[in-house]
Amino acid sequence: MTANLILLGARQFITERAWQLGLRPLIIQQPGLSDDVVNRQSDRVLLMGYDDPALIPMLKAAHAVTPFVSAITVAEEALIPCARINEALGLRGTPLDLVEKTRDKTAMRRVLDSGGFSPMQWSAVKTREDAIAFAERQGYPFILKPVDGVGSIDVRLVRNAADLDGVLNGRASWIAEEYLDGPEYSVECFSFAGRHVILGINEETKSTDPHGSAFLEIAHQVPAPMPPERDREVRDFIRSFLDVLGIQDGPSHTELKYTSRGPRIVETHTRLGGDRLWDLVRLTTGHDLLDMTLQWAMGTLKPLEADPVPRGGAAIQFFTPPPGKLKRLNGAHALRRIPGVVEISLQVELGATVRQALKSEDRAGFVIAYADTVQQAQAVCREVSQRLVLETA
């Protein structure tokens, strides 16, 4: 049985999986971001801006002829347009008002403040004077990020007033937040009629490159190594958070810090996590978040009864060689034979220019490993990263 699905900001991995499950995807992609491989995997392609006023009328007309089951996305910038389409066509999906809360960081903070949940100091800012006023109340350092930012782009650690030079122009909207200490985790969850099932807790590792982004994620590990009592606390905390936010159904990816004062929310997203986290969850639990997301869109997903117990450990590490022209690339073929290596993927070729690692797309590739423990999987990733030759000029 086939069903028609709307995919916004599609990637190859999600379109391939859609076809495997019997879905016929209509892909909507913004002009300039079109991918020929993805387009060939689609039933139909619309190259349109998500805010094009003709988009929803066109989809309504198509829906009247060949009905769609839902519109979904794995792209952060397409979450609100996706929710608007589902609302306009009466399709299954996360409600628009809820998506808007998660996409606007100040709106989410107001919801949490009203529920007295995950308290922290924050302020909406537009000018340098706004940010300095926040620092006078809160102190340095603090975090500054776009209200609707994605992928840690333009997130800054502000250590002093000089770090604000040339950043705030009085037009764009930013949020200033107190700096949170402690390790950072992300939680992959699927909700069923208000019951939240946690499929994986990941510990994140950020870049330490002094010239790159201090907020760029370069490694993940599932399950996150932590004492059992912290694991229980984080699970209870995430469930309470999703209740406060009002999430009832579907996937969510939530980031938190475990501070000296306990867990605190960083942000959340009404989608599955990126960076191949779905593979780490699948390797350790057998549950595939890609399949689950598509089955949820189809209305065929059977609810899970309890959090799965992880078996073994999985890790991913990204390659971030120094910027420059790639003049030597060796070792990937042999390193794939190391026990525990699941996949090695390279996003660069000889002669290509490696960029400074400022955002996710700048990373040169990755290795995924699975082992009896998450520490062993980490060790395999480190060995591959150390032995792989990525030499830039």
Automatic annotation (TrEMBL):
GO terms for molecular function: ATP binding; ligase activity; metal ion binding. It comes from Corallococcus exercitus. InterPro entries: ATP-dep_AA_Ligase, ATP-grasp, LAL_C2. Gene3D superfamilies: 3.40.50.20, ATP-grasp fold, B domain. The keyword Chloroplast does not apply. Residues 109-298 form the ATP-grasp domain. Keywords: ATP-binding, Ligase, Nucleotide-binding. PROSITE patterns: ATP_GRASP. It holds the Pfam family ATP-grasp_4. This is ATP-grasp domain-containing protein. The keyword ATP-binding applies. It comes from the Bacteria.
